[in-house]
Automatic annotation (TrEMBL):
Biased composition (Basic and acidic residues): 321-333
Name of the protein in its database record: Suppressor of fused homolog
Organism field: Pygocentrus nattereri (Red-bellied piranha)
InterPro entries according to UniProt: SUFU-like_domain, SUFU_C, SUFU_C_sf, SUFU_N, Suppressor_of_fused, Suppressor_of_fused_euk
A Pfam match: SUFU
Domain of life: Eukaryota
Domain Suppressor of fused-like: start-end pairs: 52-228
Gene Ontology cellular component list: cytoplasm; nucleus
Suppressor of fused C-terminal domain residues: 242-420
Length: 449
């Protein structure tokens, strides 16, 4: 349960009584809003570190008058407090020193258009931010600028077309160095379904740049207007789509993988074959992805999100040790279920003659993007199952370290399947660019290959 109240902390005269992480973020807010030292806040009645359900201790809400000279309209500005380490005493986040990130290393912000006659900020953005924070705390996955979030519901529970989100750096708030590490500020930007799909096919930063150039779609500071009824493609259908198409052809897509409902079957032999590496068991425990496989998939996705760089799969022979990265935070594919049951050395890579791939509908719609935006640019794309340890990676001939090859285009390492894409005579939008052994068909339940 949350409540809204004035921020009484801003008036504390003794800094020693004020948590230093909180004080540092308030200092950045006071720099931008010197005339609002006591903003309204939504606060968790029972703090997360006392067993409450809401990870954010506070969400501060400011009135921003905008900047007509920059075509920035008046709006409400929301700032979260709690994803970073506010206290430095391990009550929420493990203190790891000043040199790294504070907590998860970021706080969320949101800019909502102020409607005529509004005297107080709506509080629904606070619950939206709490929902995103719950995801971060539960999964320990962090957000980055350019990320997209599929929400599939109006952000304010109305009939709005604004049903998804992109993330970008807040245009006003600068990163803050606190005694407990660095904090940056990621702004939530509400977008329509068509804009989300374009971000998936190209990249989030490209779509954000298009939104900045359209006043009603956000303008320079990307202010969300929940009453916006037109997408940027409705407003300027030819120009915007041409820029997206050109961006995809020139840059490819930065989306290197998704969590999905997916599965694959080896049609080369009966599934009950005891030599099938997907059904290896020790005792009564099923074989799962090893730590090394999981780390390789995770590293591939991480590299795939790097802008203006060619992503590669790490070589199979390379060994990543756990001390290379902090153990307190997970990347997008790490989970407790990924612990190795069968040692990596005992699972052989197996070449397959034919495979059957299955995807749910939403995942299947990304296959054209996988081909046009990733494989035709010498990159890779991974589907990681949300229901188990299965992973399917499409790779091209330019991807280093892949165990699928031109000679053996289907290869499996335990439940991790790779499918090699080879450039035949084909158009950029053709599905036939995949190996001829794969066939497309559409069903009500999803897409199968």
């Amino acid at each position: 349960m949350d409540e809204m109240r004035p921020n009484s902390g801003a008036h504390l005269g003794l800094a020693s009584l004020f948590p230093q992480g909180l004080q540092a973020i308030y200092g950045e807010c006071r720099r931008i809003y010197p005339d609002q030292p006591n903003p309204l806040q939504v606060t968790a009645i029972v703090k997360y570190w006392l067993g409450g359900p809401d990870p954010l201790d506070y969400i501060s809400m400011y009135r921003n008058v905008g900047c007509p000279a920059l075509d920035v309209q008046e709006h409400w500005h929301y700032v979260s407090l709690g994803l970073s380490d506010l206290y430095g005493d391990n009550r929420v986040h493990e203190f790891t020193g000043q040199d790294g990130p504070s907590g998860f290393g970021f706080e969320l912000t949101f800019r909502l258009k102020r409607e005529a006659g509004e005297t107080a900020p709506p509080t629904w953005p606070a619950e939206l931010m709490q929902g995103l924070a719950r995801y971060v705390f539960q999964s320990e996955n962090t957000f980055c600028s350019g990320d997209h979030i599929s929400w599939h519901s109006p952000l304010d529970n109305s009939e709005s077309r604004i049903q998804h989100m992109l993330l970008t750096e807040d245009p006003q708030m600068q990163p803050v160095q606190t005694p407990f590490g660095l904090v940056s500020f990621l702004q939530i930007v509400g977008v329509c379904t068509e804009e989300l799909q374009a971000a998936q096919q190209w990249n989030g930063q490209g779509i954000l740049d298009l939104l900045r150039g359209v006043h009603v779609a956000g303008g320079p500071w990307l202010i969300t207007d929940m009453r916006r009824g037109e997408t940027i493609f409705d407003i300027d259908p030819h120009l915007q789509q041409e820029r997206v198409d050109k961006g995809i052809d020139t840059d490819g897509s930065n989306l290197s993988g998704v969590s999905a409902k997916c599965a694959w079957d080896d049609l080369s032999r009966p599934p009950e074959d005891e030599d099938d590496s997907r059904s290896i068991c020790i005792g009564s425990q099923p074989r799962r992805l090893s730590d090394k496989d999981t780390e390789q998939i995770r590293e591939a996705l991480r590299k795939g999100l790097e802008i203006n760089s060619k992503s590669i799969l790490p070589p199979i022979s390379s060994q990543r040790h756990s001390q290379d990265r902090p153990v307190s935070r997970k990347d997008s594919l790490e989970s407790e279920s990924s612990a190795a049951i069968v040692p990596h050395e005992l699972v052989r890579t197996r070449q397959l003659e034919s495979v059957h791939l299955k995807f749910n509908h939403e995942s299947g719609t990304l296959l054209p993007m996988c081909l046009r935006g990733r494989l035709l640019h010498g990159r890779h794309f991974t589907y990681k199952s949300i229901n188990g340890d299965t992973a399917i990676t499409f790779v091209s001939t330019g991807v280093e370290g892949a165990f699928a090859t031109e000679e053996h285009p289907y290869a499996a390492h335990g439940p991790w399947l790779q499918v090699m894409h080879m450039l035949y005579s084909c158009t950029r939008k053709s599905h036939s660019c995949l190996h001829p052994g794969l066939k497309f068909f559409q069903s009500a339940k999803g897409t199968s290959l």
